[in-house]
From TrEMBL:
It comes from the Bacteria. InterPro entries: Flavodoxin/NO_synth, Flavoprotein-like_sf, RNR_NrdI. This is Flavodoxin-like domain-containing protein. GO terms for molecular function: FMN binding; oxidoreductase activity, acting on NAD(P)H. PANTHER family: PROTEIN NRDI (PTHR37297:SF1). Gene3D superfamilies: 3.40.50.360. Residues 4-155 form the Flavodoxin-like domain. It comes from Oenococcus oeni ATCC BAA-1163.
Amino acid sequence: MKKVRVLYISIEGNSRNFMERVEKYSKQKKEQNTNNIEIEAVEVSDSTDLVEEEKPFFINVPTYLEGGTGIGPEIHEIFTNALGDYLDYHDNFKKLIGIFGSGNRNFNVQFVLTAKRYASKYNKPLLYTYELSGIQKDIENFYEKIVDNLPKDYK
């Protein structure tokens, strides 16, 4: 079995709910012998101890913004700083495979803006986006994107 870490931030609970469902889905896939990849969701917050990641991993980033239209200089992101600090710690970002993003489509250009900014900052692909806490199809697509993007030599 391959255990794959997905680091995430959750303030309102949508990302936490989504990641719990992804973990459960990955365990079902393993039990059905359809795949040997199990997701380990790790919530990052201001109280998380910074550690050096040992293996490649993914991140799941919600969008929390304050001010302006979301595209001008007056915008600033809130609540995801702990994840950015974690990625910068001992260059953890070098083991980052890809990024997933969530948001609310009602906010138009702000939809998954934080994930897009992480992708740009760390030069990593934005693999999949979903709205709020996602639907079952998002869980399945998220899992498949992880499977498809794991390095061939991942152990």
